[in-house]
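Sat 14:20. Reprocessing the chain from the morning session after the first attempt stalled halfway. Input below, unchanged.
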Amino acid sequence: MIPVPRRLLPILLICLVGGAAHAQPPPRPAGAGQEIHVSAVDNRGLPVTGLTAADFIVREDGAAREVLSAAQAEAPLQIAVLIDDSQAASDATVYLREGLAAFLERLHGRAEIALITIGERPTVLAPYSKDTAALQERTRRIFPRSGSGAYL
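Finished this time. Tokens:
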């Protein structure tokens, strides 16, 4: 056992108790509902619209739970694309640009997209935007950073 001076004991105790209290999630009120996000597509992969709460079944530990409501999401989809521009990815830079260009064209204004490089320190190449042309222009500025390494 490591000896601890008596004057440090209260500080150590406060740190331990404070950290334990902070790590616990706040209690949910009794009867509070859970929000679940789902994607509904048909057998061709196309979105199914007009679904109501009656169209969903939720089970928890085998027991059916009441679905209170169902609504289509109204907030725009936000996607942060993390781009490895480290030296290790230098051989793939051309493919990375081509793939990003195709991805951006496919979404074409249906989502807010941010481009963030992570080869060295995270750097916002383009903030969230629906402007496909501006995002495409930023992808052409992706170059490997020599001497860098990506660490997640």
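The radius of gyration is 24 Å.
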